[in-house]
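Progress note, project year one: complex with zinc ion.
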Amino acid sequence: MFLNIFYITNMSSYLQLFQSHADLLKALAHPRRLEIIHLLRDQELPVTDIHTMLDLPQANISQHLMILRDTKIVLTRREGKQVFYSLGDSKIIEASDLIREYLIDLNHDSELADHLSLSMKELAPIVTDPICKMRLSPKTAAYHLHHQGEDHYFCASGCLQKFKQKIKTKES
Ligand SMILES: [Zn+2]
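Model obtained:
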């Protein structure tokens, strides 16, 4: 009887571990939320900057941020009227990078690997996002665009879209 109870308690904490793991992955499992943690990789950002970079409806972004906050993946700090976001622990970025490397290996002979490995190149030289002026490395930039013989790197999809619009207006 005693042994049995011991077994059950042990078993439930064993399963609880996988449940916690799954809950965390669930909080991460959205392209936009992965994009947000990538933006916060080396810096703290005011929520308004996150809005500019992602170019999504505000309600949408708030919901993603809430999920990340609830799981403590991101932390907030209030300064006056502005709320700043940062990563709770940089280990989450290491985990995300590792998964990206795994994706590259998995898709090594497809077009996706080319895209993924483009942004995994060497850390140096440091480049600047032409839209928000964020300093990035080609390794960590979310997007890369080759335009008229020049390489441009972007922090997130919002900045890439704005850049493409700029090109369009210039060319038309
Ligand atoms: Zn940007």
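Residues 53, 129, 131-132, 134, 154-156, 159 surround zinc ion (CB under 6 Å).
The first helix runs from residue 2 to 28.
No further modelling is planned for this target in the current period.
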